[in-house]
Sequence to fold (337 residues):
Amino acid sequence: MSRYDEEAKYDRPKRRTRPRTKDRPSYDDAVIGFVFTRDRGRYACWVEDSNGGREVTAMKARQLGRTGVIVGDRVKLDGNATGDEGSLARIVEVLPRTTLLRRSADDDDPVERPLVANADQLVIVVAVANPEPRTGLIDRFLVAAYDAGMRPLLCLTKTDLADPDPLLSIYRPLGVESVATHQNGDLSKLREQLDDRTSVLVGHSGVGKSTLVNGLIPGADRAIGVVNEVTGRGRHTSTNTLVLRLPEGGWLIDTPGIRSFGLAHVEPDQLIHAFPDLAEIAENCPRGCTHTADAPDCALDEAVTEGRADAARVDSFRRLLASREGRELRDAPEEAT
Fold:
């Protein structure tokens, strides 16, 4: 019979006969780790144990698929989690996140970029001089903190060069706590704010984040840069996110200096919930109200007129909204560059 005979019949390949199961491993015996860095597909995780803790190198298990693993994630580790040289564990599950610090590339980019998970506090490092403070960037950091559910803390550096009060007065209506530092100064008040917390340091290049890290954690050896005398801008001395353990307890996550922070993913209703007093008033706003100064029939305006809301606090909240939209209110403090 010819192989091309029309009557020739060919059997189809047999389907797999092995039945699929809905049962999945529970990994009840897996250890819990804290991801503190990533390098080319390998994750360094910290696992607490009776000796204080150990570093475990792990890779993402295939079943996680496209599930992202970022710094700060608490994960389940299967396989060899001894931390011995040459050992490799598998990340088989990412535990639910309590907070998630995010940004977008710019205000027109809806794609979220997760930065750090499970951090308690966002420490916004700002120099009062050299370079001059950029209030627009500070506002954006505040929006990101409120959106993530993190506690914001203003850390003012170089206070020996200029009076910090003018800058602090801008943020007092928002109730943001602050600490003041200067080079070779006492860091005890800052340490009190960091103890037993997981804190993320963010700030413009040249504001002194690396100096703070070196002062807080002996041996950290973060590179320290200088500020350009012509442009007033610093250069990036920290090029990677670094997680360090604080001597008195807690974690400090130092991020590279940045000059922009997109907030396309933050909606006005998300932001106002960070201000319970204003959120309660805003419940009487028309549907779809943006809560901005030009929003028709916004309940915040009526509350200010009737004395039920602090005008300075409403103005500060609206300044944050304007920052989220990539513009500034006409009566907002001018941003220095």
In short: The longest strand covers residues 31-39. The chain has eight helices and 13 strands.
